[in-house]
From TrEMBL:
<dbReference type="Pfam" id="PF13561">
    <property type="entry name" value="adh_short_C2"/>
</dbReference>
<comment type="similarity">
    <text>Belongs to the short-chain dehydrogenases/reductases (SDR) family.</text>
</comment>
<keyword id="KW-0560">Oxidoreductase</keyword>
<dbReference type="GO" id="GO:0008206">
    <property type="term" value="P:bile acid metabolic process"/>
</dbReference>
<dbReference type="InterPro" id="IPR002347">
    <property type="entry name" value="SDR_fam"/>
</dbReference>
<protein>
    <submittedName>
        <fullName>SDR family oxidoreductase</fullName>
    </submittedName>
</protein>
<dbReference type="GO" id="GO:0016616">
    <property type="term" value="F:oxidoreductase activity, acting on the CH-OH group of donors, NAD or NADP as acceptor"/>
</dbReference>
<dbReference type="InterPro" id="IPR020904">
    <property type="entry name" value="Sc_DH/Rdtase_CS"/>
</dbReference>
<dbReference type="InterPro" id="IPR036291">
    <property type="entry name" value="NAD(P)-bd_dom_sf"/>
</dbReference>
Length: 261
């Protein structure tokens, strides 16, 4: 029994020598995931839509890690193939995939535009499926891999005026479980992180509304909105050997928001 315990070290949490794809990691929460991986020893491949990569490049290179960028539209099948092919050309393997890229649009439900629904479902759900499917084939050959999907508090609840986002994030949980069932036999784990309300630049104006801010904060047992670093330990855990026997689950990083009424 002692030998079993001696096998466990903090190296279980190391990502040294690993290659991670994090979609949309040049901004927002994706930046936190990418920097966490770099700090844990991984090299990065970042597909991105917007052009600004200065900050994330500096943050990753500061950790002494390599990062490769590829700009384009993940809703285009040709670009998804380019992402996979380019990463394999640069690194020769893919150990970790984080399906982080996403979009949301709020509008009055009665007049919600079909084109907004289609765009949200395509990027938030369909792209995660297609990338996971293609990269899953590579991981099968490697006989190892980690797929981490990004859900939301809205994977378990519903908000008004954003139906496709709610639908897509519920779908992310189903996708995660389906892939865990299909790929588990190859030593590939598929899990999800479901962030709650985090204080970011994207929602800075929203947080200035005192009624909304109080409504959300009062429901969080932790008594505060999350910070981006609150996600970093969880993403490293799910990407590392330490989580090898966790498959098909989502961890809510929300201060307890989805546990309360």
């Amino acid at each position: 029994m002692t030998d079993i315990f001696d096998n466990f070290t903090l190296d279980y949490f190391s990502l040294k020598g690993k290659v991670a794809i994090v979609t949309g990691a040049n901004q927002g929460l994706g930046m936190a995931y990418a920097v966490a991986f770099a700090k844990a020893g991984a090299d990065l491949f970042i597909p991105h839509f917007t052009s600004d990569i200065t900050e994330i490049r500096e943050l990753i290179e500061k950790e002494g890690r390599k990062v490769v960028f590829l700009q384009g539209d993940l809703t285009q099948k040709s670009h998804r193939k380019e992402v996979v092919d380019t990463c394999m050309k640069e690194y020769g393997k893919i150990d970790i995939l984080v399906n982080n890229a996403g979009v949301s649009k709020f509008a009055d439900f009665e007049y919600y535009p079909d084109e907004a629904y289609d765009a949200c479902i395509e990027l938030d759900l369909n792209v995660a499926y297609y990338l996971s499917h293609e990269i899953g084939k590579i991981m099968i050959k490697q006989k190892s891999g980690k797929i981490i999907n990004i859900g939301s508090a809205l994977s378990y609840t519903a908000d008004k005026s954003c139906p496709p986002y709610v639908i897509a994030k519920h779908g992310i949980i189903g996708l995660t479980r389906s892939f865990s069932n299909e790929l588990g036999q190859y030593n590939i784990q598929s899990n999800a992180i479901s962030p709650g309300f985090l204080a970011t630049e994207v929602n800075a104006e929203l947080r200035k509304d005192p009624l909304f801010y109080k409504k959300i904060t009062d429901r969080i047992p932790a008594g505060r909105w999350g910070e981006m670093e609150d996600l970093m330990g969880t993403i490293i855990f799910l990407a590392s050997k330490a989580s090898d026997y966790i498959n098909g689950w989502s961890i809510s990083v929300d201060g307890g928001f989805t546990t309360t009424l």
